[in-house]
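[Q] Does anyone have a clean structure-token version of this?
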Amino acid sequence: MASRIWPTTALGCLAVLAASGPAAAADLTRAALEQWLQRYEQAWESRDPARAAEIFTADATYRETPFAEPFRGRAAVRDYWASVTADQRDVDFNYDVIAVSGDTGVAHWAATFTQPSSGAKVELDGIFVLELDAAGQLCRSLREWWHLPE
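[A] Here you go.
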């Protein structure tokens, strides 16, 4: 008898778990992710740390590289941006959404800028893994991997 009850019970438990998920949370859409990336682009190209911080939640984490400790919270994001963009001019940022699943989006990005202190032209190529809030407006977690040409 137990062998007949197990499949029915297991299916019932799965149905309950599925139904008990966050009812109000909507999946992130490609359009919402693209809108967020456009705001990121505007913040970077204008080198505006306050504008950059505005697109993150108050408790966001921002991990610039996989092994670095994340910047935590809007103030830390703003301070990071103020530091890294201070020696950048003529920033050009482009992106392409790769995937969206649940509240997570993945995008390929590329950026170029000039560093006035050295006159160097910098080219970066990277990937974002982003977790956005339920409204798809603010980023809760940003992880990035980026490289310079060799």
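[Q] Thanks! Anything notable?
[A] The helical segments are 2-19, 30-45, 49-53, 74-85.
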